[in-house]
Queue: 2 jobs
Job 1
Amino acid sequence: MKLGIIGKPQCGKTTVFNAAAGQQEAVGDYSQAVHRAVIKVPDERPFRVAELVKPKKVTPAEIEFLDAPGFTGKGKESKGLEVTPELHQMDAFIMVVDAFSPEANPETDIQNLIDEMIILDQVMVETNINKRERRIKLTGDKSEIRELELLKRCLTVLEEERPLIDMELAEEDARLLRGFMFLSQKPLLIVLNIPEEALGEAEDIAQKHSHFVDVGKRELAVMCGKIEMELVSLEEEERQAFLNELGIKTPAVQQVIQKSYALLGLISFFTANENEVRAWPVSQGIIAVKAAGVVHSDMERGFIRAEVVRFDDYMEYKTSAALKAAGRMRLEGKEYVVEDGDVIQFRFNV
């Protein structure tokens, strides 16, 4: 799963990227450079399972971040905007917003950036409508009628200055739209980048802008990118001392990563053996046989059953024998809906 970090120039995009990725890319230079990193999702559970299993390695869940060139932030005033194809391919966006500079106006910036995505989508929708109408007129082929009508519905929403993610879509319509990779159809995590002196007001700042939140569509986080970037360059002992001095229990960047993960509709299940304990990111609602295929295609093809233990039960009973004796190890079939934190052993035969 991939998330694109977007925002106006000088909003702190690359600072937030560095904090999440533990990197030191140049910041503040109006660079059009693109930065990429695979980010480990903060989650203590695979490491706690590993304390019992003693594997050779532990592999947390991972997502990919892409720090994209800054948007103009001009919204409806924008002309000739261009967004790279790679940005269209992102599964969701992290929108970094300047809430630290003297001239900062987060409310306006957030709305302008959303407007900008709406405009870009509107241009794409109009282009695709024109193409299909011409093709239908020339060939008489009616196979694209449904898609054409759906695009016209999208155009109506965009002309109302609403993002496409706010549309109510049947599953078939949602599937048809996925191929267009519209910007305003993607989930959005808004990150307010505040100054160090405002750290004590983070909760109040989040509450002030909470009207942007819409569960499963838009989320909000508050962080001081400058402090978080400094933290990743410190040794563990120094980092903890710094956090204590600032009165911070958990680095905000961890919350940003976790909220990004949840916004993508992802959960984690775990596999555990003497070689590796691993967290597997999967879409919420995935069934056991498809989860097996995430681990290995042979497991899906030859699926027999899944031996499932809840994470809390795994921690409490500690061994397979104790889990079985307590009736905490369940045998599940192909259609079992995997839950977050399940520790699963797949039985298969090919």
Note: The chain has 14 helices and twelve strands.
Job 2
Amino acid sequence: MKLQGVRVVDLSMFLPGPHVTMMMADHGAEVIKVEPPGEGEPNRHLGAKQGGFSIFFRNTHRGKRSLCLNLKSPAGREALLKLCETADVFVEAFRPGVVDRLGVGYRDVAARNPRIVYCSIAAFGQTGPYRDLPAHDLATEALAGVVSLNLGNDGEPTMPHVPAADMAASLLAFGGIMMALYRREQTGRGDYLDMAMHDSILAWTPNIVGEVFANRRPPVVKQERSLGGSAMYNIYRTRDGRHVVLGAQEIKFARNLLEALGRPEFLPLCERGPGAHQQPMIDFLRSTFAQKTQAEWVEWFAGRDIGFAPVKNLREAFDDPHAQARGMRLLDDQGQEHIGVPIRFAAEPAQPRFDLPRLGADNERILAELGYTAADIARMRSEGAIAAD
């Protein structure tokens, strides 16, 4: 596998960092999750559980080992630094300054291992006026202007139901880590990545900043090309209370749809682009889609060259034959479901491992690999430097 032989120390929590390191584990990296005593990783305890683990934990921590260290203990801190001497990548997601106060910041770790690729993920990064603000996904999206784009039918902002800032930071951190590892092959030295969720979600806005940059004003959301201002890129309610979408604005698709519906006179509205002038066509399509059920529209659109899709719920989405054909719903030996691997190589494909670690399950083995004796480990346990379930 692509990352076989890469050792990752994961000191992060919740979503962005654990997701980064799980992607690496899926592709062969050895990931050692370093957790604090007590409850350990918070997402062990969030949401629905199955088989003794939360589904959240299952889909962010498969294939990892767990080392439970008290980093406020000198012995626990030293154990982490010894582990970093053997590692290629270090990921942390504390608030800025915390790792330095603990003595495991980049300078501390790089002094022991200059080849380390050290990645910090924070809400607002390590610099700037918002550096020290406490925040999770929602607050970073709000300050990035993205929540203002998520308007309900009442025109009020609604909750973003996918943690876009978390996942943007995760994916960009993954790319940054891979670049740093590649560059290390030429220079022999690692690097430090300062990743911010706020930066990451701002970077995901190239298709909606036209008016922002050209005219220095926020977009009129319902008139934007991809936010509701186009009849051919919109959501419509069906007779049975479900929904469908039109998801392709090219004129050829509009022509195909309007000719099939017997209303080609609306085509000039599409040719003028998105905006308030498209409202008559949007109104027509709303009344049209309300005349059939979602299933009937799926049948009607079959074989027609038009961007169309039914709005599925998340259960239906993972049951969908395409998602299953692409391996995006995986089953382990107990029949439990896992989110699949989206990075697909022809050679050396990912081999996700579904084993999940109990808190501190690998303490003794990892410390022994670092040269600690049984007496050393017993002493660390008695001093509270390590812990386990």
Note: The first helix runs from residue 16 to 26.
